[in-house]
Design brief:
3 strands; mainly alpha; three-stranded antiparallel beta sheet
Length: 189
């Protein structure tokens, strides 16, 4: 069974992200609003962001950084864009332009980028503080996918998650009796 954040927990977490560092806020925003895997997030480079055009803001998850080898473009919702812009403006490129090749979230102690373990620790620390629960980056991905399915079709969710097989995406479809009744009513009323 997949683990998800409840709507109340998601909202509670979303409402306090501004209290954390700009970097932590940006990382959490990408995980929550874009559904990236931790391994995809740590390999994002500055050149993978396209946030200059307010009508079409997205990030590019390059194929060589994904589990499946399939690259994809991710639309950036306003809350993610705002967190990223704030982080970049204040911390990544405040005085001199960043190189497009630079990692979006550089590591410390000579590492080029953060580690998956570091992202897991960050998510768990923030969620323990806010929700008093152990939460993983993949729980945020599951929550993202489940929320998407309320407003889009399974094929769109498959593409946004970067799944090769539709069966990988089907784990997020867990309709209950009320969902089925609502679908029939919407279709035939």
């Amino acid at each position: 069974m997949i683990r998800l954040l409840s709507n109340a927990d998601f909202t509670r977490l979303q409402d306090v992200l501004y209290k954390f560092s700009d970097k932590e806020h940006a990382i959490m925003a990408i995980l929550m609003y874009c559904g990236l895997r931790a391994g995809e997030l740590i390999r994002l480079r500055i050149k993978d962001l396209d946030i200059d055009d307010p009508r079409e803001r997205e990030l590019h998850v390059r194929g060589q950084t994904t589990k499946t080898g399939a690259g994809r473009f991710m639309p950036l919702p306003p809350l993610a864009t705002e967190a990223l812009e704030n982080y970049l403006r204040k911390h990544r490129c405040p005085h001199t332009p960043c190189s497009p090749q630079d990692f979006l979230f550089p590591g410390s102690a000579g590492r080029h980028h953060l580690s998956v373990h570091g992202i897991e620790q960050l998510v768990n620390r923030i969620c323990r503080k806010v929700l008093h629960k152990h939460i993983t980056p993949h729980t945020l991905r599951h929550t993202y996918a489940t929320k998407l399915l309320k407003y889009s079709n399974i094929r769109e969710v498959q593409m946004l998650l970067g799944h090769k097989k539709l069966s990988s995406t089907e784990i997020y479809t867990h309709p209950n009796k009320q969902d089925l009744a609502k679908s029939v009513k919407k279709t035939f009323s």
